[in-house]
């Protein structure tokens, strides 16, 4: 009885995947436009090794989740900055007789109060990128090695589009799970 091989254990053989002679791992991102002719003749850019599958999945996950977090944190920083720099009139204060009094003097209107610091605005994108990197490392590793194991067990070669699509799926799941009403329904 023959031994079982896996893409995750290169010491036990190459499995049932037939790696072409002279194969080299493509550089990242190596996306190509698949056509019907390319698909039937198996021409394209494919991944065969578990480490390459993991790298591609991790890089796409890091790029897509990092971009999402950076966009959101930049928008949040911009909102905080505009909130700190926008002048607002003091609200009207009700008095005992039911009449409202408004500040009339120019001095009370433009009081020189201490401005809040701007460092939280600048550090927010940095913190979000660090958090996105951690999320990407964990989820990209789990999904990348799961893909490598599944494709190795089935004896399939993996197109370089598959890690990109799984990175996109992870971003969409992250967006969907951020809505608290949806998660409470599920």
UniProtKB/TrEMBL annotation:
Topology in membrane: Multi-pass membrane protein
Q: Which Pfam families match?
A: Tmemb_170
Q: Any keyword Transmembrane helix? A: yes
Q: Which InterPro entries match?
A: TMEM170A/B/YPR153W-like (IPR019334)
Q: Where are the transmembrane segments?
A: 58-82, 118-151, 163-182
The alphabetized UniProt keywords are: Membrane, Transmembrane, Transmembrane helix
Localization, UniProt: Membrane
The superkingdom of the source organism is Eukaryota
Q: Does the keyword Transcription apply?
A: no
Q: Per the similarity annotation, which family is this?
A: Belongs to the TMEM170 family.
What is the name of the protein in this document? Integral membrane protein
Q: Which organism is it from?
A: Kwoniella bestiolae CBS 10118
Q: What is the lineage of its organism?
A: Eukaryota, Fungi, Dikarya, Basidiomycota, Agaricomycotina
